[in-house]
Amino acid sequence: MTKPSLLWHDYETWGADPRLDRPAQFAAVRTDEDLNPIGEPINLLCQPANDFIPHPQACLVTGIRPQDALQEGMPEADFARCIHEAMSQTATCSLGYNTLRFDDEFTRHLLYRNFYDPYSREYAQGNSRWDLIDVMRAAYALRPQGMEWPLHPDQTPSFRLEDLTAANGIEHGQAHDALADVYATLAMARLLRQAQPKFYQYLFAHRTKYSIQQQIQAHPQKPWVHVSSRYPASRACTSVILLLGWDKTNKNAAFAFDLRQDPRVLLDLSVEAIQANLFTPQNQLPAGQERIGLKQVHINKCPVLLPVKALDAAACERAQIDMATCEHHWHWLLQQDLVALEAKLQGVFSKQAFNDQGDPDLMLYSGGFFSAHDKRQMQQIQATPVEALADLALPFQDIRLPEMLFRYRARNYPQTLSLQEQQTWDQYRWQKLHAEQETSLTLAGFQQTLMQLEAEGIDREQALMLQDLVYYVESILPYDLMQDDR
Fold it and tell me: Which segments are annotated as binding site?
């Protein structure tokens, strides 16, 4: 029987949007559950394909030049294969720092583009995932003893990894180098596990959706302590919530209300008024209007939910929680028609359409799951030698897959393209460079960003990095088409 292990990992990327941008570096360290290293660390660079422009800010932050990634890295198809193999090892828990909201989304889109199941490594064969950032938030709010907690100038806590390591005397090396960040995350986990072993183990044991479901089912209509970045750091990212039912379109999502707020607003306002309050951008809300404390808790995203008894007086003070007020609101809600309220909340969170523009690269979530038939065709793609990819004719059912296969060949193995296919690929790249709809960084956006950075002031090393980036971008431009456009 395979022993459980933890795969601590981190990406550095060419941009911040997992749908539109691509990974540059991946690093990982495997440990046992006692956090002892197993095997050698993984440290990979990914060659950038020529259909996107790296963001200048990303290059300045990571220090990775596209030229270096081209020379030292591997095609994205091989990069994805290595990551998939590491994360899919039986009984692996993949985790890191802010991985659920950032790294895992890059992993899903990476695997999707390269014909792997984007989800199975998260749950199959005893696998799971976790994220240390909410664990650290919970430790600050509920069990802060034994660690130092850095503060911003406004006296709110900072949960930036580099701030936490500095405050606790942990060597971080070069921040925003993937392997350095992995070792820093692992060191913080060891420190917390040493300082608060029972607390650490409780949260680790309750990371899966099945354990969280069991918790909720064992205590229906009871309030919970919820730790999340969706509560302000000034309130220790913590509140007391009541779960008000389940989303019928997403069985992993529960409706949750922040019991610090008056719940009568849920009955007084219409579905449309609640939606406007929740989903209107902050800068467009009327002055002084507070967000309604209504959220969804996703049990497949390792939410930090604890019994209310986890709160002591000091924790309530840090989180600005008045338990008497929360209990009053809880009892009021229990006296209402919760079945009708659940139906109303279903309307509030009715599924929002994904803006995928018909682009298969953007259709991971909007395009649905691939059929068993198509999954077999995708396995055939991975098993086909590179030199035979051009002759591969597969009976796909999903309309996304023919275009995805073409882009897969063009990005990873351009030598397999015919002259006509190369012209088609160049036309596609030209359109992306000039697209007005949502896309990765355009040529105009790239030039504007460079001007903005120069206006803000950059040092000599940064100027050299940006000059190398300009050389790289010039090298991938489809000049023939750009000349024709003039």
Answer: 10, 12, 160, 181
Q: Which of 483, 453, 480, 449 is nearest to 53 (CA)?
A: 449
Residue 483 has pLDDT above 80, yes or no: no
Annotated binding residues for substrate? 12, 160
Q: Supply the pLDDT for residue 237.
A: 98
* Domains of the chain in sequence order: 210-350 (3.30.1520.20), 360-485 (1.20.1280.70)
Are 153 and 118 a contacting pair, CB within 8 Å?
Answer: no
**Positive or negative torsion for Cα 456, 460, 466, 467:** positive
Task: For residue range 47-87, list pLDDT tens digits in order.
Answer: 999 999 999 999 999 999 999 999 999 999 999 999 999 99
Annotated binding site for Mg(2+): 10, 12, 181
Contact 172, 165 (CB under 8 A): yes
Separation CA 61–CA 59 (nearest Å): 5
Q: Would you put residue 457 in left (φ > 0), alpha (ψ -120 to 50) or beta? A: left
pLDDT score recorded for residue 173: 81
